[in-house]
Specification:
globular, AOC barrel-like, 2 helices, 8-stranded antiparallel beta barrel, disordered N terminus, 9 strands, about 15% helix, mainly beta, binds 2-acetamido-2-deoxy-beta-D-glucopyranose
C-alpha cells in the first residue's frame, strides 16, 4: 500500500528535476546546433558551357541500368528503369575535345505516360584551377523527348558554394541510347 501511494510523489519529483535541468536557453540552442545572423556576401553569376556525353550502349558505355520495377519492361515509357552514370563533360561536342569534368549520379524513368526522367547528378569540374574540385548539384525533371529543356541547380561546393540556378539543355545528337547534350549553365553563388 505504502509503495503504491509513494509512486506519484516520486514521479512528481522526477518531472520537477527534469524541468530544472533543461533551461530555456538549452532548449533553444542545443550545443550541437548554433544559429547566428548571416549576411550574404555579394553574389556572383558564372556561366558555363559544355557538352555531356551519355552512352548507354557501345564500347564507351558511361551509364548502366541498375534497377527496375516489375512493370518496367511492359511499360511504353520504361517507367522505373534506373541508371547510374559517370558521363564526361567536354568543351566541344566532339568526345575527344578537352574534358572539363564529369556528371555523376542517377537518373530514372519517372513518367508513366510520357517519357521523362528524374535526375540527381553532381557535376564535378576537373579542368581549370579556378573550378577544379568544385561541384554543382542538379536535381531536376528531364523531359528528354523535347530537344530543348531546362534543369534546376540546387546547390554546390567549393567555388560554387550556395549555388542555385538553371541549365538550358539542348540535344546536339542522339540515337536513342547514346546522346550528346549541350549544357548552358547559369549559376548564382557566393
Ligand atoms: C527487363 O529487360 C531487361 C533488358 O532486356 C532484362 O535484363 C531484365 O531482366 C528484364 N526484367 C524483367 C523483370 O523481366
Ligand atoms: C570511344 O571514345 C574514344 C575516345 O573518346 C573515341 O576515340 C572512340 O571513337 C569512341 N568509340 C565509340 C565507339 O564511340
Ligand atoms: C496513364 O494513362 C492511363 C491510361 O490512359 C491512365 O489510366 C492513368 O491515370 C495515366 N497515369 C498518369 C500518371 O497520367
Ligand atoms: C585538380 O586537383 C587535383 C587534386 O587536387 C590535382 O591532382 C590536379 O592536378 C588538379 N588539376 C588542375 C587542372 O588544376
Amino acid at each position: 500500500m505504502g509503495a503504491i501511494s509513494a509512486f506519484p510523489l516520486q514521479f512528481c519529483f522526477a518531472v520537477m528535476a527534469t524541468a530544472l535541468l533543461i533551461t530555456p536557453a538549452q532548449a533553444n540552442h542545443p550545443h550541437w546546433g548554433e544559429t547566428v545572423p548571416y549576411h550574404s556576401p555579394p553574389e556572383k553569376m558564372t556561366k558555363l558551357h559544355f557538352y555531356l556525353h551519355d552512352n548507354l550502349i557501345g564500347s564507351n558505355q558511361t551509364g548502366f541500368r541498375i534497377a527496375e520495377a516489375a512493370i518496367t519492361n511492359s511499360s511504353s515509357t520504361f517507367f522505373g528503369a534506373t541508371f547510374m552514370v559517370d558521363d564526361p563533360l567536354t568543351e566541344g561536342p566532339d568526345p575527344n575535345s578537352p574534358l572539363v569534368g564529369r556528371a555523376q549520379g542517377l537518373f530514372g524513368a519517372s513518367g508513366m505516360n510520357e517519357t521523362s526522367l528524374i535526375m540527381g547528378l553532381s557535376l564535378v569540374f576537373t579542368a581549370d584551377k579556378k573550378f577544379n574540385g568544385s561541384t554543382i548539384s542538379v536535381f531536376t525533371r528531364n523531359a528528354v523527348t523535347y530537344t530543348e529543356r531546362e534543369f534546376s541547380i540546387v546547390g554546390g561546393t567549393g567555388f560554387f558554394r550556395f549555388a542555385r540556378g538553371f541549365i538550358s539543355a539542348k540535344t546536339y545528337w542522339t540515337n536513342g541510347f547514346n546522346s550528346i547534350i549541350e549544357w548552358t549553365c547559369t549559376v548564382v553563388h557566393n
